[in-house]
């Protein structure tokens, strides 16, 4: 029982905004991770089911949902929302797990230096999602 408690405490993220590191809370992380993994799983399954009946070019277009799914999964694992970064906001207590909509807990990032750190982190995450999506799309296209 103590090991579970220790593990649970070790994976907790800081409860405050950390520039370039953390701009969403536990609920936002969970929703984004589940959504991202779900999108990737559905389209990998679709790609595998249609390997013989759909053209190679069409299967390469799976890059788009792979990119979206991987970006959402990255946001969930890294506790960082790229949309919040682009808008200069953070929300550690999101009611719905999305960066738009009606959230009374969304806050503005006031420091320009912190906004730069957030945008830099968002660019890295976009790049990682693009690379991952390319790899998945090419692997499915060649299968």
Care to describe what's here?
There is one protein chain. The protein has one domain. The chain is 64% helix and 3% strand. It has a two-stranded antiparallel ribbon. It is mainly α and 143 residues long. The N and C termini lie far apart (45 Å).
**Helix proportion:** 55-70%
Approximately how much beta-strand content do the residues carry?
Answer: under 5%
**What is the number of independent domains?**
1
Judging from the principal axes of the Cα atoms, what is the shape? elongated
Series of H and E elements: HHHHHEEH
Uncertain residue ranges: 1-11
Mean pLDDT: 86
* DSSP summary: helix tally: 6
Write a concise synopsis of the structure shown.
The protein has 143 residues and is mostly helical.
Which key terms come to mind for this protein?
143 residues, mainly alpha, two-stranded antiparallel ribbon, elongated, disordered N terminus
List the SSEs and their pairings.
Blueprint: H1 2-10, H2 26-49, H3 56-60, H4 63-78, H5 82-87, E1 89-90, E2 107-108, H6 112-142
